[in-house]
């Protein structure tokens, strides 16, 4: 098939024009954005405390609020992309906004007078959040859209795509942690933030080079309207029976006004789950006698089944929240553990920054993803006969088990740390260095990386594959929101642990142990 051939495709959301093309390198855009994000987020608390002079508690609160807002905005960005602008235009606009935020961030630390720089700095941070909101849910979905699912070889390649896409994200994040944070601390904040702006500008340029060959979807209005129509129609016909009072069900998903017709090509198969929604597709006496179809009273089989697809993802979203709580420990309490441990390498006096050990998680992912794609998948495919070796849900289940194991190991290490602190009389000295090596934390960081490889990539693929085609950006935003909600839940959980520890007159060090044991217990119960 000619790569420039235009294809006209019709789905449940109406007609859309898609240009068939060879695969572009849109992963560079995502790597650049992740590089910039972690270049800001990874060392933000140090800038707030050392340059702006904020107390640690205030700085931590500001960082958490910014990260929370950055996790919420993708929901709005995805809605705009699916409903109005389309993914390509949303990516382009949001990347420009992101670049503007980075430029303003650089100016705030180099050119703005100190008495005004804090206001400008925070304004730039939240401009980045707006750019993140449009960019994050669309880039991966837009890249996956370039695969033609009508071609067996491209459909099979899509599962591998999600593995390598996540690998690219980790490369960008790990490089930022290793390079940008060093430049910010030892060369200058202006140069550090300026590097990020240059990288995003270069990524935007590469993205625009291939703009003429991208497969694009035309937005067709709010997909939430279609969901609401099914719910309202099912409620209005709650007494109607398909066997006694109906003239069949409505199959046609076009804009035809005539009521009737049989199954159309591409119609989703009817399922037995959430059967109360099936009433929305039943043609009753009122529908039959009407000259035009009322979309708030009669919906197609496709439309009803799409709503069922969304509802099936809700339990998975809820189940993965505790996994996100575990991930939230990487930059918070795992780092807190390391800050009170011996951080020297061998007999040298060089101190490893407590936060730098997070690199071990990134390195684990960099090694594990190629092994998974090139070794695990072929072996498991020969055993199970499944094209991807194991199903998406099985992959996520393995990852969640590994996250439970992560917290079990973390709790055991913390118990050892508390025991040593008690033995040396340091239990009530939270700032004291406990004589135990920070390298005891490596197993939990490595396990966390392995759980990411299985769960995060599985979530990305599942929420793309199972969402209705017109809501795939929303699917990406939904799986991103899991991580954001996990951060909020982690804060709530540890606040409860702190209250419990204080009521029982326990030491501050024991709070972390309680939290780790509790997370592991909830994870086991949920699994």
TrEMBL record:
<feature type="transmembrane region" description="Helical">
    <location>
        <begin position="35"/>
        <end position="53"/>
    </location>
</feature>
<dbReference type="Pfam" id="PF00854">
    <property type="entry name" value="PTR2"/>
</dbReference>
<protein>
    <submittedName>
        <fullName>Major facilitator superfamily protein</fullName>
    </submittedName>
</protein>
<dbReference type="GO" id="GO:0016020">
    <property type="term" value="C:membrane"/>
</dbReference>
<dbReference type="InterPro" id="IPR000109">
    <property type="entry name" value="POT_fam"/>
</dbReference>
<keyword id="KW-0812">Transmembrane</keyword>
<dbReference type="GO" id="GO:0006857">
    <property type="term" value="P:oligopeptide transport"/>
</dbReference>
<feature type="transmembrane region" description="Helical">
    <location>
        <begin position="438"/>
        <end position="464"/>
    </location>
</feature>
<keyword id="KW-1133">Transmembrane helix</keyword>
<feature type="transmembrane region" description="Helical">
    <location>
        <begin position="309"/>
        <end position="330"/>
    </location>
</feature>
<feature type="transmembrane region" description="Helical">
    <location>
        <begin position="189"/>
        <end position="209"/>
    </location>
</feature>
<comment type="similarity">
    <text>Belongs to the major facilitator superfamily. Proton-dependent oligopeptide transporter (POT/PTR) (TC 2.A.17) family.</text>
</comment>
<feature type="transmembrane region" description="Helical">
    <location>
        <begin position="500"/>
        <end position="525"/>
    </location>
</feature>
<feature type="transmembrane region" description="Helical">
    <location>
        <begin position="65"/>
        <end position="85"/>
    </location>
</feature>
<dbReference type="InterPro" id="IPR018456">
    <property type="entry name" value="PTR2_symporter_CS"/>
</dbReference>
<feature type="transmembrane region" description="Helical">
    <location>
        <begin position="164"/>
        <end position="183"/>
    </location>
</feature>
<feature type="transmembrane region" description="Helical">
    <location>
        <begin position="393"/>
        <end position="413"/>
    </location>
</feature>
<dbReference type="GO" id="GO:0022857">
    <property type="term" value="F:transmembrane transporter activity"/>
</dbReference>
<comment type="similarity">
    <text>Belongs to the major facilitator superfamily. Phosphate:H(+) symporter (TC 2.A.1.9) family.</text>
</comment>
<feature type="transmembrane region" description="Helical">
    <location>
        <begin position="476"/>
        <end position="494"/>
    </location>
</feature>
<keyword id="KW-0472">Membrane</keyword>
<feature type="transmembrane region" description="Helical">
    <location>
        <begin position="91"/>
        <end position="109"/>
    </location>
</feature>
<dbReference type="InterPro" id="IPR036259">
    <property type="entry name" value="MFS_trans_sf"/>
</dbReference>
